[in-house]
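Exercise 7. Predict the joint structure of the components listed below.
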Amino acid sequence: MQQSVIPISNFQLALTVLLVMFTGGISYLLKLGLLKNLLWGTVRTFVQLTLVGYALTYIFYINNIWLVIAVVTLMCYVAARTAVKRIPDVDSNLTLLAFFSLLSSTYLVGAIVTELIIAPKPWYSARIIIPIFGMILGNSMNGIALALDRLYGEARSRAAEIEALLSFGATPWEAVRSSVQISLRSGMLPTINSMMVVGLVSLPGMMTGQILGGADPREAVRYQIVVQLMVAATVAIGSLIMVGLSYKKLFNKDGALQPFVLQSQK
Amino acid sequence: MLFGFTDIIPPLGQAPFEVSAALNEGDVLVVRGPSGAGKTTLLRILARLTSAGSGEVFLQGKNWRDIPATGWRSAVHYMSQRPALFDGTAAANLSKPFELRALSSKKFDSDRAKALLEELLLGPNIWNNDARTLSGGEAARLAFVRALLLEPKVLLLDEPTAALDGKARDAFYRVLGRWLEAGGRTAVLVSHADDYTGIERVCYLDINPERVGNKDAAICNTNL
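Solution:
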C-alpha cells in the first residue's frame, strides 16, 4: 500500500500559471480590480513556500530543540499580530495578550499531542512538532480573531445594556458576561461545525496530504482524528484565555465602558 | 448634606462647564440647559460612567475616590433617557438586578413592584408582556420601577418624563415624591418644563454654554 510521492517537476509547476490565467481572466473581464493583488499573491505563494520548503529541510536536518522552540514562538507572534489586525483601536497590549493566549494554548495542546499521543523519537523531532504546532496555531489564530472581533462587536451593540447592568452595581465581568458567552461561541462554532462534516464534504488538508504522499488512508484518518480534536481543544483554550484577558480592555479603571465602545466605529 | 459635588468639569472634547451643588435628603436637583450643554454628561459623571475632567463628588460625607465604583453605581443609580430593557418579560426585567452579586443581600419584592406599576398607571397585564414590545412611555415607567426597587440613595434620572403624557407625568412625580419622603434619599433629574407637583424642595442647576468660565452652582427653593 505504501507508495512514494509523485514528484512535481519545475516544468509541471510552471504549468500552474495556467490556473492563474483563469483567475486573472475573470478578474479582468468583470473588472474586479484584483489583478495586482492576484499577481502579487501568486509571486508570494511561490517565494514564501519555496523558502519555507528550504527552511524546513534545514530545520529538520539540524533537529535542535532550541531551534524548534524559537520557530514555534516566532509563529505564535506572527499569528498574534494577524489575529488582532481586524480590531480597531488596537493597542500593542492586545497583541501581547493574543501572543500570550496563543503561546499557552498552543504549547499546552501541542505538548499533549506530540508527546503523549504521537510520541516521536527523539521527543523533540522537528519533523513532527513543527507541522503539528503549525496546524494548531492556524486554527487557534482564527478562533481568537473571531472571538475577539465578536466581543468588541457585541460590546458596541449592547453598550446600553452593559451600562444598565453597571448602573445596577454589576461588576464589569457581570456586565459583559453574555457578550463573552456569545463571543466564545462564535470563536468555537466553526471548529465544532467542521467536526460534524469532516470527511463528508471535503477531506481535510492534512489527511489529503498524507494520502497523496502514499499513506494508507486508514492511517491518515487516525492522524486526522487526533488533529480534529486537538484543534477543537486549542481553539477553546485559546479563545477563553484571550477573551478572559481582553474583556477588561473595554473598561476604564472605574469599571465603566471606555469611550471607544460608546462611539460609532470609525 | 447627603449628596454633593464641587467644580465638576467634563472630560476633554465635551462642551465645557463647571458646576457645583449640595443636596440634603429629600431634595430634587433639576439640571437645566439647552441641548448639547452637557446635562447627560453631568449625570453620567455623577454615576461614574464617564470620567470627569476634574472635580469631587460626595455621598454621605465620603469622597467618591474612597468608594469602589461598582458599589457607588448601585447607590448613585443612573437611569438613561432611553433605558435599556433586556430580553424577557417585564417582570424578568424588574428582577434582573437582583441576580447580581452586589444585590445578593436584597430580595426582589414582587408585591412592591406590582404596587409601584399600578401607581404609575401600568395595568397588571404588563407583568408578563415581552419587554421589547413595550411602548416608550411604558418602558420608561418600567425602568423607573426597576430603579426604585434597587433602593439607591441617589437617583439620577435623564429626562424620565419625556415619553409620558400629562397623567402619567403627574403619577411619576407623586411616586418620586413619596419615595423621597422615606428619608436618606435624593434625586437629580434632567427635565424641561415640568411643575414637579409632589416634590417638596426643588433645586435648579443651569448649565449654560454661553457663560463659559462662569462657575454654576445650584440654587434651592421650596416648591410652592
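Discussion. Chain A has eleven helices and no strands.
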